[in-house]
Amino acid sequence: MTKRLSLELRRMAFESHDACVSCGYAFNKGDTSHLGYGNDDEPLYVCDKCAKLLKETAIRHYFMPRPYILPVPNSKLWRYMDFTKYVSLLASRGLYFTSADSFEDNYEGAKGLKNHKEKWDSHFLEFFRSAIKNPPPEYKHGLSEVEVENQASKLLADLELVGMANKQSTFISCWHESEHESEAMWRLYSSFLANAVAVRTTYESLYQSLGRDPSIYIGRVQYIDLKKSYASVNDAFWRKRKSFEHEREVRAVVHDLDCKEQGKVLTCDLDQLIEEVFVSPKAPAWFAELVTDVNKKYGVQVAVSTSELIEEPFF
Ligand SMILES: [Zn+2]
Questions:
Q1: Which domain does 152 fall in, by range?
Q2: Do 230 and 158 share a structural domain?
Q3: Which one of 68, 87, 122, 247 has the minimum C-beta count within 10 Å?
Q4: Are residues 180 and 89 in the same domain?
Q5: pLDDT of 199-244, one tens digit each?
Q6: What distance in angstroms lies between residue 48's CA and the mean position of ligand 1's atoms?
């Protein structure tokens, strides 16, 4: 294995994650996926059967399904924000990702409820004990029961430390998935301010606008009942409590061990990202003009619409 991973190869493995690009075989958990290059140095992401097409194997992966569900490409995504944040989006020509550590929801990245931790701990202790006692056939662990116990406990403590540290190195941009504008979201994310806007995009546009970057994961949050289940080690940033279900959140997630800030801006093609901008239903008439002027100032060509919520009814 050469470990040579070009952007094209990483992107191919990212986009075709679930299936072999040659024969279309749908990978199952535990299968091997092969990443490499064919005779003409073209990138390939293939199954065992098609691995013979590889002239160079870069790396092999133990296949794991994505920890999140992909929205359909034209699924509409909304981001409600006050005017200052909108101007900052335009001025920075980038999307702000907030550190998971600075979210108000202190369950962000959590595996479960504290009073269920004992069960979780004993499950992983048993898992680590078994792994230590059953090394590959050519090795002998040669450890006493006490040493096995100490090592298992240390691994468990490390797992928890990593879980805490991940909160600081995980950055998230949150979106609301819906066909329609939402009155509740205006209330929640713009405090129903007069000077607020909602940006509408689609899953595909969000992905494209961030440069089809295989290190940015975009998917649906799943809402779980923590009284009955846990988030697993890889799922933690893709699970939230049932009480947040109304958010219908799609999030973009990126990991960065070096960034020590509360958030980071990732370059984003705004013309691709922003399909339409809606101004708050509480906004005065001149506000839409202001938003249009600001768009012009920053060279973003996008339609500005008034909220559908203020359309007049008849009886
Ligand atoms: Zn195949």
A1: 114-166
A2: no
A3: 122
A4: yes
A5: 999 999 999 999 999 999 999 999 999 888 888 888 899 999 999 9
A6: 7
